[in-house]
Automatic annotation (TrEMBL):
InterPro entries: AI-2E-like. This is AI-2E family transporter. It is a multi-pass membrane protein. Belongs to the autoinducer-2 exporter (AI-2E) (TC 2.A.86) family. GO terms for biological process: transmembrane transport. PANTHER family: PERMEASE PERM-RELATED, TRANSMEMBRANE PROTEIN. It is found in: Cell membrane. One of its GO terms (cellular component) is plasma membrane. Keywords: Cell membrane, Membrane, Transmembrane, Transmembrane helix, Transport. It comes from Vescimonas coprocola. The chain crosses the membrane at residues 9-25, 31-56, 77-99, 157-187, 234-253, 265-286, 307-328, 334-355.
Amino acid sequence: MDKSYKKPLLLITFGVILFAAFNNLNYVANFLKSCIGLLAPILSGLLLAFVLSVPVRGLAKRLRRKLTKATDRQIDMISLLLTLICVIAIIALLCVIAIPQLTASVKSIAALVQEKWPDWVGLLQRYGIDTEKLSAHFAALDWKSILQSISSEMNTVIFSVANVAGSTVSAIADVAISLVITFYVLIGWRELSSQSKRALYAYCKESVADRICHISKLAHDTYAKFLSGQCVEVMILGTLIFLSFSVAGIPYAGLTAVLTAAFAFVPYIGGFLSCAFGILFTLLAAPNKALLCLIVYQATQFVENQFIYPHVVGNSVGLSPFWTLLAVLLGGKLFGVLGMIFFIPLMALVSQLLHESIERRLHTRKPELSNVQSNSDENTDISQ
């Protein structure tokens, strides 16, 4: 076939396929769901391996300095074993310590609402607000069953996934396949990386293969920095909030610290949410300390952000608040809480690739602009 006809023919074929897909969206969606269902164990195993690869590789680097006579395979095995032990220990601590305390805190908050309700109704009535319908709805609530439901839900939240997975043989098989894939990927990641690179350079142009390798490395480095940075941020901020609230005598210090640690994975927005919950809990238990709660929380977060975070964590992904907020909103809208978390390093990756593309084009078309931008980039990232 004449090469001059090849590109138009490919474009026409792509247009026909795209037109047919848009006219049969239901069939396309069902087909994609079927493919995802078939590949779910593999995809979940690869995703879990990608998440665990950060601590596994970090431990491997440290072990290599001390175990000089050990092979790479042995170091990978030891680092994977240590990572699994840490994960199991964290889950055990959550089940034994954190969840029972959270259950007790939530139950006490529900009981406190029931106790304070008449006072709140009287306050609203003094301001001329009709509370008859509100009181009727509140009186109709079965608080005993609500408290029992809260307790049972909080106690089984960690085990719900395991119970669902254990309901069918196929689900157990899928989980087993995912774990096996995760194990082999983490153990043999060097061989897989070498084989993938060989295949890539064998079937692609060298420039294309170089570009794919560069993007892959950049994606892994960006995600690793984000995950490690946020984990350190979670531990430091949660501990500081617990200590500062305990010293100031603010109620529900443990519950607020846990929520702060959980929301810390979502930068900027998470801080406002955890602060709002802390003030709400304080208003329920001790309204006179609500302002103190706000001051202590903001002061603790200011100290952590200004003096601890830059030295311990640094700028993990190099995104400005605007792009981080955009990533959180877009990821949350598409994929919920996980989307909020994973879209931040994804947005950082896109920002970095866009920055590199702009620099290449400016260097070709306007070298003087590229030099100016490069000099300014020494102090300021383009994404900020």
